[in-house]
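Researcher: I'm preparing a figure for a lab meeting and need a structural model of a single chain. I don't have an experimental structure, so a prediction will have to do for now. The sequence is pasted below. Please return the structure as tokens so I can convert it later.
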Amino acid sequence: MAQFFLFDHPLIQHKISMLRDKNTSTKEFRELVQELSMLMAYEVTRDLPLKEVTIETPVATTSTAKVLEGKKIALVPILRAGLGMVDGMLSIVPNAKVGHIGLYRDPNTLKPVEYYCKLPEDIVEREVVVLDPMLATGGSSSAAIQFLKDRGIKNIKFVCLIAAPEGAERVMKDHPDVPVFCAAKDEKLNDHGYIIPGLGDAGDRLFGTN
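Model: Understood. Here is the structure written out token by token.
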């Protein structure tokens, strides 16, 4: 069953508004994406399993202390905009490994084609978090998830900052087993496939390109 998680935390909503502003500089935009990714990481990792251990505090010994059970995580940004979300996530899960996947749209078939994929050797054993700031049509995101599944990866989550209803519906329809985490769900796509109101091209704003 498809799951869609929309964040309503005041800090997240505040930073999303700053991110949308066309006057936000490249430096500020990059920092905001990192901060938002860090804040979202708390909820994305909420279901990580814990185990009880015995530790000695300065005043007593306790056997009810909880630590992570050791579930392994991998972050997989979709190139290139997804790169902007990696550092924020790593600040919360510093032991995560990082893979990369790159896609382009074939001008004839209009279907996503994988042009680059580099993943950790033990990726199949890990919980994989796919990162992409914008979920627009959902075509590339859905394809990236499928490319990972084709490599035997079963435990996948998808994290974006802003989603269009069309993109969210596409990913949840194609991959009902993949939870989608999102900071803002916008109104619609325009005729050029841009999210409205959106924030423009996340990659260009992250890296200062046109």
